[in-house]
UniProtKB/TrEMBL annotation:
Keywords: Membrane, Transmembrane, Transmembrane helix. This is Yip1 family protein. The chain crosses the membrane at residues 74-97, 109-129, 141-162, 168-191, 203-224. The lineage of its organism: Bacteria, Bacillati, Actinomycetota, Actinomycetes, Kitasatosporales.
Length: 483
């Protein structure tokens, strides 16, 4: 029988784990005396006297030297695992809407990267059990470190975006605590130098940096560069046709042709549109007055671009009004639509000119998404039920359109309060639109916020107008009469 003990228990490592060899072969590691006894029992030595120096050799301490603080280790495992899984869920919730339904390829890539980062954090959560356990994998610590770095980067980005507006959202209850958790987790992992098991730490660091840079560039491209450089171009026409005399009534039937074409590269949502035909009356004078005087007078009458020497007392009366599209209609790039509209005026009309205005208010589809199903539904303000819900006070008779609108990037949506787009139409007044956090139940519209949101969502108005002489219309009808 050899005088050398056949069970050797090594000194505790930095975590309190003691390596065990039996008969010169590695048998594993133990955190406590109870765990050592279970190990020997599994190996077929249940009756080994651990206090017998002939059987067990203790190095770096005796049978009572077990510095492992199990409660601290278990608490670290729980906190690391819960934090990584919570971050993975948050990244998936934020990234999936863009990954599955974003308009542009760059936005889908951004969403996919967030989803993939969530999967990486799930792998890191699994590696936590090994890193704070037996450490059978050399890279488990590096995987955990990568997952925590991802969480710190994304939560820091969310926090910075939230600080821009400082609005309450339910996601604050997730990314703010997770940011604090990620700072603590980074401190723990740096203190333990969790990257030491990586065979080539420089390549690992380079891979982490490249991934972070790719994510940042993709986000910047999809949210700032691409929506800014894509040009917007439209072709609007409003033209009067040849009038026809009504066979049974002393009226003229005047055709009006309207056409709209999106010649740009970006699809748009139509928020509201309107076309209105006006008849102009004026008092004529052979001597007339100076153009400068008429121009100044026109400024007082909201006619900044009209001044004539031989006419005075210009007035416009609305004859016909309507809409080209339903609110929420998508006008795709390259799409062209036309409409023929016929209106009537009396033969002995006092108008000297007919004027038509066509205008369309649109929102760039690469800047945001409108809940079209709700936005298309009209709410008449004169109906008691609708008016009470969609008009605060002194509401005129009009159709109200109201719906939610989201930014094109879900990272922005989770750091902002919900936005709503509002549009009203009436044949009596020009269309009105608004986009803000206003929802008819809280305070009124914040005009500074509204101005910012109009710019962020790329909302603009395009207009076209045309005029025709009534004398020309009458002459065209007289030439058609039989002699």
């Amino acid at each position: 029988m050899s005088i050398r003990p056949w069970v050797v228990v090594e000194a505790p490592d930095g975590r309190g784990l003691r390596r065990v060899t039996v008969g010169g072969e590695n048998a594993g590691s133990a955190w406590s005396l109870r765990e050592l006894r279970r190990m020997l029992d599994r190996l077929g030595y249940p009756d080994v006297d651990v206090e017998d120096a002939a059987s067990v050799c203790w190095r770096g301490g005796d049978s009572g030297t077990w510095p492992d603080r199990a409660w601290r280790r278990y608490a670290t495992i729980v906190l690391m695992t819960v934090g990584l899984l919570a971050s993975a869920v948050l990244n998936g919730v934020i990234g999936w809407p863009d990954a599955s339904g974003a308009l542009t390829f760059a936005q889908r890539i951004t969403g996919a990267l967030l989803v993939l980062s969530g999967l990486a954090q799930v792998a890191a959560a699994i590696s936590v059990l090994d890193y704070w356990g037996r450490r059978q994998s050399r890279i488990s610590g590096a995987i955990v470190l990568l997952g925590v770095l991802i969480s710190l980067a994304i939560d820091s980005l969310l926090l910075l975006m939230w600080l821009e507006e400082r609005e309450y959202t339910r996601y604050m209850l997730a990314f703010m605590p997770l940011w604090c958790w990620s700072v603590w987790a980074i401190f723990v992992l740096v203190r333990e130098k969790s990257w030491r098991g990586v065979p080539q730490p420089k390549r690992f660091a380079a891979g982490v940096f490249a991934s972070a840079l790719l994510t940042a560039l993709s986000l910047a491209y999809s949210t700032m560069y691409q929506p800014t450089v894509a040009p917007m171009r439209f072709s609007l026409k409003a033209e009067f046709g040849k009038a026809r005399e009504d066979r049974g009534q002393p009226f003229l039937q005047v055709p009006l042709k309207l056409s709209v074409k999106n010649t740009g590269e970006v699809s748009v949502y139509v928020i509201i549109d309107d076309f209105t035909v006006y008849g102009r009356t004026a008092k004529y004078s052979e001597q007339g007055t100076s153009v400068e005087k008429e121009w100044k007078k026109g400024l007082d009458e909201d006619r900044e671009d009209e001044a004539e020497r031989h006419i005075d007392q210009i007035a416009f009366s609305s004859i016909s009004s309507g809409r080209f599209y339903r609110p929420g209609t998508v006008l795709e790039s390259g799409q062209e639509d036309t409409r023929e509209h016929v209106f009537q005026i009396p033969m002995n009309v006092k108008y000297d000119l007919l004027h038509v205005d066509l205008q369309i208010v649109y929102m760039r589809k690469d800047r945001g998404r409108i809940d079209v199903k709700k936005f298309r539904k009209p709410h008449p303000s004169w109906k008691k039920k609708e008016g009470r819900s969609y008009c605060r006070r002194n509401c005129p008779e009009e159709l109200v359109y109201f719906g939610a609108v989201r930014h094109n990037n879900n990272l922005v949506n989770v750091t902002r309060k919900p936005r709503h787009v509002l549009a009203t139409w009436s044949p009596k007044v020009a269309p009105v639109y608004s986009i803000s956090s206003y929802d008819f139940r809280g305070k009124g519209v914040d005009f500074a916020e509204e101005s910012r949101e109009v710019d962020r969502f790329g909302i603009s108005t395009i207009e076209s107008s045309s005029e025709v002489s009534v004398a020309e219309l009458l002459r065209s009808t007289s030439s058609l009469r039989p002699s």
